[in-house]
Design brief:
The complex is a heterodimer of chains A (471) and B (233). By secondary structure, chain A is mainly alpha-helical. Chain A is 56% helix and 10% strand. The chains are: A mainly alpha (471), B mainly alpha (233).
Amino acid sequence: MTHWHDALTRRLRALVKTAPFHALRAAEGRRAATLPHDDALALAMRALEVLVDALGLRPGASRAELECALVPLLESGDRAAGVPPDRERHRAVILSVVGMLLNDADRRQAYRAEYVDFSDGRAERRVIDFTLASEVEAVDGSVVIRVEKDGINLFLRSLDVDLEDAQAAAEAVIRSQMERGRLDMAARSAREAQVRSIQYAEKVDDVLKRTRRDIGRVDWRSEVPHLVKEARAHLEGRLAAERELLGTVEEQLLVVEEPAQAAALARIREALDDCRSRHLQLHGRLMATFDVFRAEQERQRFAPVALVRLPPLEEGLWVPAARLVARDAVTVTDAFVASARGPSAPAVLDLGVLWDQLLVPPRERTRVGRAVDEDALVAMSPPPPAFPPEVCEAVDRLLVSLEEPRPLSALLSIVARGSEADFLVLRALQHFAPDVHPPLAIRVATTGERLVAPEHTGDDLTLHPEVPDEH
Amino acid sequence: MSIDPTPVHDAARLIALALVPSNRPLANAEYGQLLARVRTDPAMEAALHEIAVGLGLRVLEVAEGGVILGTTADSPFAMKTADWKDGLSGDERVLTGLVHVGLAAYVYPRPEELERVDVKAVSVADLDGFLRDACRRLQELAAGETDPPAEHADLEHAWRVYLRWPAVGETAGGGRARKTMQALVRQTLEHLADLGMLRRQADETYQVLHRFRVQVRELAGHQALDQLRAVAC
């Protein structure tokens, strides 16, 4: 008897999925940029939080957002260790943390880990693939980072739970926390329930998307009907639970007196409302699944390309092609190149258009518009200043007193937030490549780095005191 | 037989917009509207597929990001290796082809990677290193085989051609040499970036966009495999 059971396997699988995080920590100090006091694990957790927060509202978080969230942690670590902050080093550390989440070291494939399963009474090696985060294209063409299922589970501390169970668990947790008056915790749990709903919608969407692409790759005989049936039952249960929870929240909102509690309740209501509308949408989509199936079956019967799964491309295609003699290899790779580049509209020389263009007489240049009557221009009084004079003076005093080149980001940390910081940024921009003589004796150049400041973003600049005899 | 001109016109217009990869439905209002219509109007969707097939094109994906079209080797819309660079030498043609297929093998090592939608990353030096290692392994396997006679250069194995080219080199004046593998990889990636398949990043790295994956998965991979089988027979 091995006394092994499924729950142990589930927990083992969960533990295996944390391996990349430990590898990251093990590499601390060994990589040139990472110092022992940068807690790479803490940075990775904060990065996951930023990514989970972005979930559902947007396609993902940008690298700049991650940088903004992680730089303060790195700086505070540097302060505690008595090390001067180094922006270049910080960037390298962040790159390694994000690189771990994306699995950059292994060409961004899914992580693959082995474990031993004793479920059938004997030791059996098994393999799991898991993904923490991916870079994806948003609809507007920008590339953002999106947290994936295993990353979410890791962050929500429920690695070994089924999606459907996790959703029910999240709601049970909210209910118990509200009953115990722990509204802040309940609000956080409501947010977790919201993330579960988003994940759930994505799971069902994925099946529909795969169906649209190739109906043959989706098992419509047993897998999908099973999923749809399960999902409908799950949704109906969730909708009922959410209705009940919302009712409780509304009741409490009527009697609660403390503003902090009211705010927490409002957050819970918002998250639950969002879950509810997501679930209603998903319900609609589920009801239509079999229509999608029928329509795709009809359409794809006549699909022109036989869609068989490709073999692994290196062993199945590249190596066999590279082993051919050059003459034959070219026929294989040319077939690939012709399709891989995508279509391009052929450029055709239209003789008629060319002929017409050649015959067009050169255009005579005429003056643009009517002559302007100079007398009609009346001088206006100057507009009122956008910044109070004392703000301008304080900033200008700081700038002319510079004795050595300073980065804008450093100066921003000296002046007060708000109008002083705004004026400083505008002054710096005014002196960057000026085309009229600028008001102050300073010179501004880019540093090539990004500006990391609470209220401003863009390229960082260096402000040099101007040497008087330069011009 | 009479046909309703509206869906046909709209579908043809959508193909015209999709043929320019820099067009985005979010930035181009007409593209956005046509895309929304084709996803709900079966008549227009059918017209889209029919027109595409008639033009030698394939509709590979209709998604929020736009329509991705593919082409087969015999289509007037297909780009031949010779089209984008005149006067490629025999070596360059083999190597450019190996780099194209090699890029797909590098970023999509397992079949599952072709099913995802994420963006991959590649750098000039990494791709060259990856392919060079693969060639070295083939060299070890072939130890003991003799080289082909000099007068039949095209009977040389493709991997030997690859290993003949240096990864990097310097010109007499200290500049970067042109006839190196890294220069050729760089040209290929730059060209794919111009076609909207990749996006340039700093330090000679590129983001490999979903569009490239769709082309490989739906068409290019299959076309190349068919050709490989034909050659092997």
